[in-house]
Amino acid sequence: MKIRAVKHNNRKKTFEIRTSTKTLVLPFSQGDPTPTVEDPVRESFVDEEAGREGFTYVLDSGRSGTVHVEQVLEYNQDPSYLRNLLLYRLTLEAQKRAAASPLSKREIMRRLGTSAAQLYRLLDQTNYRKSVDQVLALLQVLNCEVDLVVRTKTA
Questions:
Q1: What are phi and psi of 104, to 5 degrees?
Q2: What are the pLDDT digits (tens) for 125-146?
Q3: Which phi and psi (to 5°) does residue 81 adopt?
Q4: Cβ pair 137, 123 in contact under 8 A
Q5: Residue 108 in this model has a pLDDT that exceeds 80
Q6: Residue 63, φ and ψ in degrees, nearest 5
Q7: Is the pLDDT of residue 155 over 80?
Q8: N or C: which end of the chain has fewer CB within 10 A?
Q9: How does strand 41-46 pair with strand 23-27?
Q10: What confidence score (pLDDT) does residue 112 get?
Q11: Helix spans in 77-152 (H)
């Protein structure tokens, strides 16, 4: 996700990050170095060197920090980011299980009722266009049981 603009607010102690679809807020406390009243943010800008996927801020002391858009999405508990993170973790597990499975790739494809190209897309951790359902079906074919655990967050 690309960042379109970033603003800092020393009074509220927050960064305001605007993407193409939403505006998110990140408190100064999430930055490193952390801005303080004695050393406030002087400047913040979208970092072109990071492919507009992060922003950099400069403090009055001259120290600077960079924040990646994924840190902002994680802090704000963005649903699409959390879905992609779940999909990534499930895909890595499916890759490990497929490599260790006695089933051939052809047999896995047959049991899934899919093509070789689709199987390789399912096993590609950078492909976020697949559904969680498809990866769960693959794990089922690989003789895995997936349990979803919901618990209260700890500080």
A1: -75, 160
A2: 999 999 999 999 999 999 999 9
A3: -65, -45
A4: no
A5: yes
A6: -70, 150
A7: no
A8: C
A9: unpaired
A10: 96
A11: 79-100, 105-112, 116-122, 132-141
Find out whether 17 and 24 touch, Cβ atoms under 8 Å. Answer: yes
- In this predicted model, what pLDDT tens digit does every residue of 33-86 receive, in sequence order? 999 999 999 999 999 998 999 999 999 999 999 999 999 999 999 998 889 999
In this structure, which amino acid lies at residue 32?
D
Q: What does the alpha-carbon distance between residue 44 and residue 15 come to, in Å, rounded to a whole number?
A: 9
Contact of 128 with 86, CB cutoff 8 Å: no
DSSP state of 35: P
Task: Decide if 109 contacts 119 (C-beta within 8 A).
Answer: yes
Q: Residue 76 is encoded by which pair of tokens? A: 């704000």
Looking at residue 12, its pLDDT comes to: 95
Structure tokens at 33: 């170095």
- Structure-token pair, residue 90: 């499930």
Helix (H, G, I), strand (E, B) or coil at 56: strand
Q: For residues 39 and 25, is the Cβ–Cβ distance under 8 A?
A: no
Kindly list the distances between the CA atom of residue 137 and the CA atoms of 34, 38, 114, in Å, as whole numbers in the listed order: 44, 55, 11
| Tokens representing residue 112 in the block | 């899934």
Residue spans of the domains in the chain: they are 3-75, 79-141
User: What is the DSSP pairing of strand 14-19 with strand 64-68?
Assistant: unpaired
Read off the pTM.
Answer: 0.73
